[in-house]
Amino acid sequence: MGNFTKPAKHLSKKEALRRRRHIRVRKNIFGSAERPRLVVSRSLRNLTAQLIDDNSGVTLAYASTLEKESAQGDKTAQAKATGERLAERAKAKGINDVVFDRAGRKYHGRVAALADGARTGGLNF
After folding, report:
1. Single pTM value for the model
2. What's 43-82 look like in SS3?
3. Closest CA relative to residue 78, chosen from 109, 32, 55
4. pLDDT in tens, 75-107
5. What b/e readout covers 86-102, taking b as 16+ CB neighbours within 10 angstroms?
6. Rounded distance, CA 37 to CA 60, Å?
7. How far apart are CA 105 and CA 65, in angstroms?
8. What does DSSP assign to residue 26?
């Protein structure tokens, strides 16, 4: 993954610190087939979420704000709908429990809305 103790010259300090937090948290978070890792990726416009089995390196379920179903509302409402859709897809595959990986981001705003939507859909963190 690289050495993130010093910020890279092409990254902002904020992004370098987020990457360091992500590496530090990922040391302790691990997904399995029974309890996959729910990974949240956030950009300025969109949000994606995946359920990953780290043992086999396979994505079990995926949802994104780029899909047609989540085109309504503001970005937070879209994130909540994405979480609900991911939970629906996980339930269809028999997945109830997940480990939440927020990728070094704060549990706030769209990341929290996605988590709330996934909990509303029936996933246990």
Report:
1. 0.81
2. CCCCEEEEEEECCCCEEEEEEECCCHHHCCCCHHHHHHHH
3. 109
4. 999 999 999 999 999 999 999 999 999 888 889
5. bbebbeeeebeebbbbb
6. 10
7. 18
8. H
